[in-house]
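Q: Give me the 3D complex with guanosine-5'-triphosphate.
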Amino acid sequence: MRPTIAAIATAPGPGAVGIVRLSGPLAGPIGRRLFRPNNPRFAGFQPSRLHYGTILDATGQPLDQGLMALFPAPHSFTGEDVLEIHAHGGPLLLRRILAACLDCGAQAAAPGEFSRRAFLHGKLDLAQTEAIHEAITAASPLALTQAGARLHGRLSACIQALHQDLLDLRARFLVALDFPEEDVPDLAPEEVRPRVQGILSHLDQLLAAARLGTLAREGAVVVLAGRVNAGKSSLMNALLGRERAIVSPLPGTTRDTLEETLHLDGIPVRLVDTAGLRPAQDPVEAEGIRRAQEALDLAHLVLLVLDATILPTAEDEALLAQGTPVIVAPNKMDLLPGLPPWTSLPPWSDYPCTPVSARTGAGLDSLCQAMAAALQIPAQEDSGLTPNERQARHLEAARQELHLLLQGIASLPPDLLAVHLDAAAAELAAITGASTTEDVLDAVFSRFCLGK
Ligand SMILES: Nc1nc2c(ncn2[C@@H]2O[C@H](COP(=O)(O)OP(=O)(O)OP(=O)(O)O)[C@@H](O)[C@H]2O)c(=O)[nH]1
Ligand SMILES: [Mg+2]
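A: Here is the predicted complex, encoded as structure tokens.
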């Protein structure tokens, strides 16, 4: 029998209400021992009902007034008996209540242990338990929507369908192998190829969606770079709609890198303002320029900010060819009647160009659209099919197995081809946890919060 686990389920810090949660066979007995009902007609915990009363410690001393609810197995989050103790949300008080539970024989839960038990009892598959964790830690509206869709099992259903396709195909291989006397014809390559290709195209779509999922969860890094005084800090402020960075007519104003988050089509974009590039005047500026270079190395997109009233230099040009997508943003357009002629000459004409004025705000909307396009943020269709990094690794591995199968299709015997089908099916099964190892579960659940 599994031990009964207990943890504070609500966030640390003072709050109106705090919850201690237990799961396991002692949940009921501990609840009865630590609860004195207010209602004289109380006749034991009714399933999934809140009861009001006094919460006691293991010696029977009152700790708080609060609510308790018992969710009997299997109709609970974990599939085991679950007790929830709703108290006032004082950190010290909640620790005392937790200590009372431990005094009565519960064990402190490890991070993610409630979710792990829910998985082991088949209440949720692995992709769904990961979705819970991602919903809790979502930092952008899109990440939350995607996690919600996965929690509802849409990704799992899609993976299961693909898994079934692979098993069907494998069964066809094996009939020919296992019953040679039956004279079932071997699957002809013409028959296998389109079926494998169909599965592959689904895998490709899922992998493309995984990229969007990563962007939604982790955000994109957009670095404002350029020479001193081009107006990088002014543009950062204009995009954020507040005076975050110091702006001055003196060249070399920004030294340290500054980072702020902006939401673009639901994706968190980490805007990084950097020190203007020029031969450094002092060690502090030199360090600032080194940090600017470091930020550029991490960037998903560079906004190359130029003073449109002066000609670009070799230093500006050097920023174009860093291997990261670039948007050229000639700034201070309020001082010019039209686009400066150099923008239509190579190499500048090879890059997307969005003229702006940080001062008047002209062009900022177009700049945001250009950033969304450059980051390949697709139009918002929320399919819910956005695998996370772990899931994407398995999809990629399955994809490789199927490519190997296609390569060998004309030359290899069916039993060797079936090995690739098996391997691909095992990778898909690992996504939903239909087949998985303790190590994988440890890796997944250890990232969870305590009490989840
Ligand atoms: N007319 C006009 N002036 C601008 C515009 N954007 C910035 N400036 C001015 O240009 C000067 C430099 O602006 P900053 O934003 O500090 O430039 P920066 O690129 O951050 O400069 P460093 O931090 O020194 O590299 C300031 O005097 C700004 O007021 C603009 O769109 N139009
Ligand atoms: Mg600056």
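A quick observation: Residues 264 and 372 are 7 Å apart (CA to CA).
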